Each structure stands twice: as structure tokens, then as C-alpha cells.
Amino acid sequence: MRSPEDKSQKPGAGKNSWADSDQQRYEPPGGIDTSFYRGTTPEITEEVAKELLDYDVTHYLGGISNYHRALDMSRWDDLEVWINEQAEIAHKNRWRYFEDEDGNPYALNEDNNKFTPEQIETSPIRVLYCINAEGMEGHDPTPPEFAKIFRDWEDTIYKCVLNYIDKYPYVVNCLWWRTRGHFMKYVTTGFLGPHADCDSNYRTRGGQRYLPMSEFPTRQTISISANLSQCGRDYKGGVLRFPYYDVDIDMDAGDVVMFPANFMGMHELTTVTEGERHAYLVAFGSGTDGQTQPDVSEPEWANMWTPPIWLNDVHDDYAKVIRHSPIWAKEPLFYNPVGQNRPLEGVGVDKAGGGHFDDDDPFLIERASDKTEAPGTMPQQLPVPQTSEVSPHVESTTGKQ
Length: 401
Prior knowledge:
Elements: E1 8-9, H1 22-25, H2 46-52, E2 57-59, E3 65-67, H3 76-94, E4 96-99, E5 105-108, E6 114-115, H4 117-122, E7 125-127, H5 144-167, E8 177-179, E9 182-186, E10 192-195, E11 203-205, E12 208-210, E13 220-227, E14 235-237, E15 240-242, E16 247-249, E17 256-260, E18 267-269, E19 272-275, E20 277-285, E21 308-310, H6 314-322, H7 362-365, E22 386-387
Parallel strand pairs: 1-12
Antiparallel strand pairs: 2-3, 2-22, 3-17, 4-5, 5-6, 7-9, 8-20, 8-21, 9-20, 10-18, 11-12, 13-17, 13-20, 14-19, 15-16, 15-18
Helix pairs in contact: 2-6, 5-6
């Protein structure tokens, strides 16, 4: 164990934030091709706002929501071949191999965590570097037709997030940025143990503070797991489990599950007993590293996976959604920060609404006579899944695997 003199030390290796990381600063030869993969969000018209409110979704306790078959999976058969090739490259490049003093083999991953050969076989394969025009870390350049698929998925996920905001509106001010998605592949015997996505692995021991390699996870607000494989057909097992809420989700291909990234969103993926399971993972969060050049990029500079990019239009987009929301046609706007018509930070009441609604906006006038806008009027969440249209198969569990 380290014995640093200072009471608060970071590991000698690793990166503290995306601003310091090779991923954030990577530029291919000739500069970034901003036309290859722009991270801008889709245009939310009045018609799109109405459509996304009709998404087929099941809301569970604890802010867990499953958007059923939301992603277009029509090109998956072609894409899967390419993703599996990139997964092999990622898996090969991830590990550094050693032997201990007794001659026992072990490996270290990118976070310097130690794995036995048996643990490597069950570890999911995380593919981070393969959406790039030039290729990176040994990966092939991304075919443009596949980049378009990823962009379509990102747009759909953003629309699902707007729907999620309508259900849980106080999340909106906690959504400053999003990461570009990345892939996770589970082979037979693969699993992911219980964890919370905001956990940075901070520890104290013997009065000593051990700071993590990166504090970036602590700023994540919601996590998104999109399933690309069909349970029961492509794989068996591999259930997304939320033990605190006794919720198991067998995900269909194209399902998008979102949930809080904090400790209450602790989850696991049970063992894949047969076949292969593919997932597409995205994070939305808030805050920066506080540096002059923050570790969040402008959307047009999203040249690769996982670095965070600003959500420049999320409040304006949701202001269009709320006008058509069946929830907020009935519930008091007191419980919706956009509906409250809050002033912008630091500019006073003369800028009420942050530019979303004028004082004479019909949306507000129609609700001006609502006398129920007071604490205690929102209904309690039911202790059962709240379902639109269809109810997915959900198995109860008595404990963690």
C-alpha cells in the first residue's frame, strides 16, 4: 500500500479529467474533421415534441425508465460484424500482463486494477476508441454509414431524455453535458458486478485519503444503457438488475433504459449464460473541472467517443415539450423548474423564465387561475411499474447475484 506524506494523494498514473486526457485532446492528422460526427442535438419541432411524448415507456420506482424498442436496429446485422472486430482490438489493447513473485500470471487494465486470467475471461469488453474518421488505438476508421447509425441512435436517446425530463423535471438543471456513447460487449460467462456509475473509487484507510484517478464520474447525473441484442435469441441471462428496487429488466433489442447515476441507481448485469450481449452506453451530467479551459467540448468538436459535450439547447427543447405534456396540463407548474418561469441566474426578475415564456404567453395565462400550485399536491409514485401501452417481462429477485 502507498504511504504518501500528504493526507490527500492521487495515484501516480491516470488522468484527473477529460481536459487532461488523451481522448479529449486527440486530433487526427490534418486536424479534426468536424463534418464526420457532429455532437449537436436534433431539431425539436412542435411535431417532434408531440411524438416523443407518446414513446412506449415503462417507469419503475427510483427513476428507472425503459423506453421499449426505441432505437432503429434495422442495420444491426451489418454493424455487429464490424463492432465484434473492433471489440477484439479493444480487448487485446486493454491489458498489460505480468507475473507475481510466485510466477502467477495477472493483468492490469487501463485503471491499473488487477485481474486474474479467470477474471479477464468474464470481464465485459469496453470499446471506446473506434468512432473516428482516422482510426485510433489500432482501430479501423469508422465507415461513414455506421457513423450515421450512431448519430441516429444519439438523436433518439436525446429525445428519450426529453421524455424523461417531462416525468422527472427537476433533472433538467442537472443536465449540462452528455458523453458520446460507447459499446460494451459481454461474452458467455461475462457479467458486471454491483456498482453505481457515480462511484469514483475514493477511499480512506488509516486516516489516509486515497483520491481516484479521475473525479469525472462524480458529476454524472443519469446513465443510459441501450440494448443492441435480443434477450432469449442472441443471449440468455444478462439481466439488468436494480437490487434496491427489486427490479429486473430483460431488455429487447433497441430498448433504452435510463436511471440515476447516483448511489440509489446501483445496478448490475447478471451472468450471460449463453451467447453474446451488446450494449451502447451514454452518460448525462453536470459541472466542469473548474479550469479556464473546461473539460467539456462544444458539440461540433465531438470527434470521438466519451468526452463530454455541452447540451446547448436542452432547456429550449424541453420548453417546447412541456406545452404538449399531458402531465403538466394537469399537475401544478410549481413542481416543474421550466414551468415555474424562473429568472436567469444573476439577472433578476426582469428576465423571468430565462427566455422560455413571456408574461403574456397563453401557456402561462391558461394556468394562472390554478390554485393548486402549492407544496404537497404531487401524487406519490406507485410501488409498481407505471406502463404506457405494453408491460415488459419483469422478474422479481430476492437478492443480488
